[in-house]
Every structure is written in structure tokens, then in C-alpha cells.
Specification:
The chain has helices spanning 28-40, 53-63, 91-104, 121-127, 131-141, 155-162, 204-215, 245-253, 268-275, 282-285, 288-292, 318-328, 336-343, 368-379, and strands at 3-5, 12-14, 16-19, 45-48, 71-76, 78-81, 84-87, 110-115, 145-152, 169-173, 219-223, 258-264. The protein is an alpha/beta fold.
Length: 381
């Protein structure tokens, strides 16, 4: 299993992760075995946002034999009240719920302590100076949580977290459909029966988030990568065509700053289906051709870093050059870190001969030669 460095945390996480929310659907022994099976396949990062005792007990049993090999995303503020999930910043519930998490997971530390589910800019500002945030920092200072993360569905909130200086990674909802949607504080907009017909390509706020995270070395782990299975059904997909799990995984993992995608599993066969990504061919990973030819919501004219432009006669890594260009133009001046990373490329945009052979292969009709010219001018080489 390939691993990626999770931003400034420095953790090497498997690019296929384990989203734990379906564990409680099944008998405990069955779910415990599923976690162990995933581990045997090289999966080493697991998200536990769930507050219910059954899910937490299952995870505790599933990881106890090799706790040191797992990286756990444990959420602070996800609590269990009156036999139901209750999201809160009230310390009367937050502290006992987190202590319960440690107890049921049979551990004395959480690798990634997650500021749970902030989708409102107002709430983000409110928690900055609060008993809740004091508690998060207390856990970090004591080593009970090794790193601070945050979960969100709103790119504007996530940008604030990425720029905060103390949030080291973000759990964010990413798939080709959600990437079209403008920022919202209402998660229900992501699961509307129909999308606005005017939506095309990646929303500017979401593209900005990915670039900010990359620039600030804030790693992203992905939730809702399959849009609840909607993208597998051409009748329910906003594109009017079906994508495969491998294509959805590849889309998520090719976004800037993304390190791992949390997939939900009911069976070992579903684990195998996700892990099959590691052996998939380029044709099997190819989401770009599907989206580019979709009857609705085309990404026409936008570089999605899919790599269809390869090979280049001048040996340019066109997708990577485009990433650095997109990252650089976010700022009034090219950030020194982006400039230095660009200069480390073996071949620069200035080496483009303008043959446009790559453009005939681009499924999105990007004017690549023109972008190379702009990039060379921007970076000076």
C-alpha cells in the first residue's frame, strides 16, 4: 500500500483509509475482523467520528493488537446524548465523550485530534477563544492528541483552519460532484436531488482551499469520496454518467494536498475493491474522460491534473507545472516556497516548444501551450 506524508504532521498514512461509520451495522465480531483485515491490506488510518459505544468498542478491539501501526482520527465534540449523536462545544459533554473515546479505543493517545465538524464561519470564530479550544490545546500540550486536525464541508471555513497555524490537517468532503458546489453552511445542499444546471468545473473556493493547504503544508484526508454511492449510478449522478470506485478514489487523490481517502466498508470484498486501486491501470483510473464527455456539468477548459497530456516531447510534467501555476496565481506575488518547489522540477515550462501535441490528448480542452508560456513568464524560467 502506498503511503503519503500527511502534511506537517509528518505521518506516513496509507492512501486508502478506513471510514468507520458503518461498523455498527454488523455484529461486533464481524466488524472487528473487518478492521483487522483492512490492516492486513496495508490500511493504517481510521476515522472515528462516531460517538456510539458499539462503534467505539469495535474499533478498540480491532486495533488493540497493533495499535502502534494505526493512525486514528478521533473527534472532539462528537458526543452521545439520549442514545443519539450530539454535536456540541459544551464541555459538560465534550470532555466525558473524549475520555470515553480513549477508554473504548483502549488507548491513551489519539494521533489526530479532530476539531469536529465546523461548517459555519461564525462558529469557527466563536470557538477560537473558548473553553472548548482551551481543552483541545490542553490535550495537545499533554500529548493526549499528537496533532490537531479539523473536519469540515465548507471550503471557506477550511481555509481559515489551514491558515490558522495550529491546524495540521483537514478532513474534507471531496468528489467530482461536490467540487462544483459553492461554499455552504448547509451540508444538505451536497445531497440535493438535482444540481444547478449552471454549475461547471471546480468551484473557486474549493480550488482555493486545495492550493492553500498545499502552500501551508496542511494535509487533507477525504470523506464522502463516493457521494454516498450516488456517483456509481448514472441516473443519480449529476453528470448523467456513472463513475467507478477506482475513478472516484483517483479523483480525490489527485487533488492538491490530498493524502488519503476514507472509504466506508461493510464487507471484506469492499475493502478489496478499494485496495484494488493500488493495482489499477491508468485506463481504470481514468475519471477525466468520463467527466469530460458527460452530458451535464462538464469541466471543460479546466486542468484537473489528470495526466492525460503525457507524454511530453520536452519531458515536462505538465500536471505538476499546472499545479504550481495555479498555486502561484492565488497570491499578488509568487510565494517563495512555490517558486523554490517549481525550480526543483527537472524540466521547466520555458522548455515547452509549443507543439500542442498534449492538447489533442487533453479531455478538457485546456490550452496547455498557452499556460506553459504564462507559467514561464510568471516563474521566470
Amino acid at each position: 500500500m502506498k503511503t503519503n506524508r500527511l502534511g506537517k504532521t509528518g505521518l506516513q498514512v496509507s492512501e486508502i483509509g478506513f471510514g468507520g461509520e458503518w461498523l455498527e451495522r454488523h455484529p461486533e465480531e464481524e466488524s472487528i475482523e473487518l478492521i483487522r483485515y483492512a490492516s492486513s491490506k496495508g490500511i493504517n488510518i481510521l476515522d472515528c467520528w462516531m460517538p456510539d459505544p458499539k462503534s467505539r468498542n469495535i474499533i478498540g478491539e480491532g486495533i488493540k493488537e497493533n495499535r502502534g501501526q494505526w493512525f486514528i482520527q478521533g473527534h472532539i465534540g462528537s458526543t452521545w446524548k439520549d442514545e443519539q449523536y450530539y454535536r456540541t462545544r459544551d464541555m459538560k459533554y465534550v470532555r466525558p465523550a473524549f475520555e470515553d473515546l480513549l477508554k473504548r479505543l483502549q488507548t491513551d493517545y489519539i494521533d489526530l485530534g479532530m476539531i469536529h465538524y465546523v461548517d459555519s464561519e461564525e462558529e469557527w470564530e466563536q470557538i477560537q477563544h473558548s473553553d472548548y479550544m482551551d481543552y483541545v490545546m490542553e490535550l495537545k500540550n499533554k500529548g493526549v492528541i499528537r496533532h490537531i486536525g479539523m473536519s469540515s464541508h465548507n471550503p471557506k471555513v477550511a481555509v481559515k483552519a489551514a491558515e490558522s497555524g495550529y491546524v495540521e490537517m483537514i478532513l474534507f468532503s471531496i468528489n467530482p460532484a461536490f467540487d462544483m458546489l459553492p461554499a455552504s453552511e448547509n451540508i444538505d445542499t451536497m445531497f440535493a436531488d438535482e444540481f444547478d444546471t449552471s454549475l461547471k468545473g471546480i468551484d473557486a473556493d474549493r480550488a482555493h482551499l486545495y492550493q492553500v493547504c498545499e502552500q501551508n503544508d496542511v494535509g487533507i484526508t477525504v470523506m464522502k469520496g463516493f457521494a454516498g454511492g450516488r456517483l456509481f449510478d448514472e441516473k443519480r449522478s449529476p453528470f448523467g454518467v456513472a463513475l467507478t470506485p477506482v475513478q472516484c478514489i483517483h479523483y480525490a487523490l489527485t487533488r492538491p494536498a490530498v493524502c488519503s481517502i476514507m472509504c466506508g466498508y461493510d464487507t471484506k470484498e469492499q475493502v478489496d475493491s478499494a485496495v484494488a486501486y493500488e493495482m489499477a491501470t491508468e485506463e481504470e483510473k481514468d475519471y477525466a474522460s468520463v467527466i469530460a464527455n458527460a452530458p451535464f456539468h462538464s469541466y471543460r477548459g479546466e486542468c484537473t491534473y489528470c495526466g492525460h497530456c503525457k507524454p511530453c516531447v520536452s519531458n515536462l510534467d505538465i500536471a505538476m507545472i499546472n499545479k504550481f501555476y495555479d498555486l502561484a496565481i492565488m497570491q499578488p506575488e509568487v510565494p517563495a516556497t512555490v517558486q523554490s518547489h517549481y525550480e526543483l522540477l527537472e524540466h521547466k515550462a520555458s522548455e515547452c516548444i509549443g507543439c500542442q501535441a498534449c492538447e489533442s490528448r487533453c479531455p478538457f480542452g485546456v490550452s496547455i501551450a498557452e499556460r506553459m508560456e504564462k507559467t514561464a513568464k510568471l516563474f521566470g524560467c
